[in-house]
Amino acid sequence: MTKPRKPVRIINPLPYQMLAFCNELMLKDDFYLNVVDWSTSNILSLGLESCAYLWNTGTSKMAKLCDLGLISSVSSVKWHPQGSQLAIGTAEGKLQIWDTQKLMKIRDCTSHSSRVGTLSWNGNLLTTGSADRCIFHRDPRSPYDNIRILTDHKSEICGLKWNNEGDQLASGGNANELFIWEGLNLSPFRKLDGHKAAVRALSWSPHSGNLLVSGGGHLDRQIRFWNTLDSRCLASYNVKSQVCNLQWSPTANEIVSTHGWWKNDVVVWQYPSMEKIATLKGHNYRVLYFSLSPNGEDIVTGAGGDDNTLRFWKVFNSPPNNKKKITKSAFKLDELIR
C-alpha cells in the first residue's frame, strides 16, 4: 500500500503589501549593498541614498533616523539581535551605531578605508566586511575600535553570517571565495571551493549543525550546501539565475532564495529535495534586498532601478508559540577587550 502524499503547502503568489518609493527616495540597484533589515521589535530599517529611515510595519509610519549629507551614503544596515541599536555602514568606510529609541548616535568608528557593505552581529560582537578586503570584529561597548582584523580575502567582502551557535562565521567575497572562521581566530578554519562568481548569499541551517547554504553570482548561478566541519559540498544546484539572498525557515527544512539576472524572482524550496514550493514574481529588477520578519513567517524583498519597491510576502509556517530564538555569543568578548 502506497503512502499518501503529503499535501502541497499553498503560498500566496502575491505580496500582501507593497511599499513603492517616489523619485526622491531610491533603492540602489547595487549588488554590494545591504540596506534593508527587520528588527525583533518589528521596525524596518532602510538605507536610501544618504539617509537611514525607520519604518514601523504595524503603523506604516516612516521616520528619518539620520542624513549622512552629500559626502557619503548608507551602504549597509543591521539591527542588534536583542535591542534597539542599529549599525549603519557607509560608502566611505565608516561605521555608526544608533540608539533608535532615543534617535541618537552613540558610536562613530573609522577604520575601514572603503565601503562597508555587509554586517553581522554575534551577541554584542559586530563583524563588518568592506570593499577594502578586510573583516573587522569589534565590540561597540569598548572604547577601542577593533578587536580582530581578518585579511585573507583578495577582494571585496560581499556576505557575512555568524552561525546560530555563535562559534563559526561564514564570509563570501567578490573573488569567488568562501571562508569559514572559528571564533575570533585570525586565520580561516576552512576554505570552501566551488563557486565561480561572487558569494553574497549565505545562511546557516537552524535545524542541522555545521550546515551552510551559499549562492553564487550571475556567472555561477549555483546554490551549494556545505558541511563546514570537513569542507564537503553536500549538493549543488544550478538555479539559472544570480543568487542574491538565501534564508532557512526557522521551523522547517525549507529555504527561500531571491534572484537577480535574469529571473528577478523569489523561490521557496523544500530541502533536501530542492523541489520548488512556490515561485513569487513581481519585481522587475534584481531582488537584492531581503529580510526575515521577527515572527519567522513573513519576508520583505526589495529591488532598485525602475522597480524601486519593497514587497511583503508570507512564505513560512508559524514557529511554535511564535517565539524567536535569541542567539548568544559562544565566547566572552570582555576578555578580548584590551
From TrEMBL:
A GO cellular component annotated for this chain's UniProt record is: anaphase-promoting complex
Q: Which segments carry the WD repeats?
A: 72-108, 150-182, 192-236, 280-315
Keyword Iron part of the UniProt annotation = no
Can you name one GO molecular function term for this protein?
anaphase-promoting complex binding
Q: The CDC20/Fizzy WD40 domain covers which part of the protein?
A: 27-313
Coiled-coil regions listed in the entry: none
Q: Name one GO biological process term.
A: positive regulation of anaphase-promoting complex-dependent catabolic process
Q: Which domain of life is it from?
A: Eukaryota
Family of the protein in this entry: Belongs to the WD repeat CDC20/Fizzy family.
What name goes with this protein?
WD40-repeat-containing domain protein
Organism in which the protein naturally occurs:
Gigaspora rosea
